[in-house]
Design brief:
Length: 148
């Protein structure tokens, strides 16, 4: 016989939809290859008819960025949840970049998704250390730093 306790029922109702959403809205992950040493905003334009589709590398959609941090593709921006990967790359090596949160040494920041006047879907994010990102979004340095 199976008996549900009150805390278990509350947990199912509170966390159940979130867990279900993770499974139902899963997407193929992307692997971003960023030119070695690049610091600044990355811009990927999706649904550009004249651009090639994104290739795959195993289970990953491969997004190889130009030296100026851009890429155009005819592919749609995948929606949903996935664990993307970010690398600095050069012809003979890849160096993983952390997307850890504040005060943890991350190198990937401020992802923004939107559309431009051509109805092209744009994905942007900043590549650089936390201090560089803070200066990028707050040049006067007036924003509180949680890192102390």
């Amino acid at each position: 016989m199976f008996v549900l306790s009150l805390p278990m029922l509350v947990g199912i109702f509170v966390y159940g939809p979130f867990v279900l959403d993770l499974f139902l809205h899963h997407r193929p992950p992307s692997r971003f290859l960023i030119p070695s040493g690049y610091v600044g905003w990355v811009r990927v334009e999706y649904r550009v008819p004249s651009a090639p589709p994104l290739p795959r590398e195993g289970k990953y959609l491969l997004v190889v960025l130009d030296k100026d941090g851009t890429r155009e593709t005819s592919a749609d921006l995948p929606t949903g949840w996935a664990h993307d990967q970010f690398f600095y790359y050069s012809p003979n090596q890849r160096q993983p970049l952390s997307n850890a949160g504040w005060c943890k040494g991350g190198m990937i920041w401020g992802e923004v998704i939107g559309k431009d006047e051509r109805s092209v879907t744009i994905q942007k994010f900043f590549v650089g250390n936390e201090d560089r990102f803070r200066l990028e979004v707050d040049p006067a340095g007036k924003t509180f730093s949680p890192c102390g």
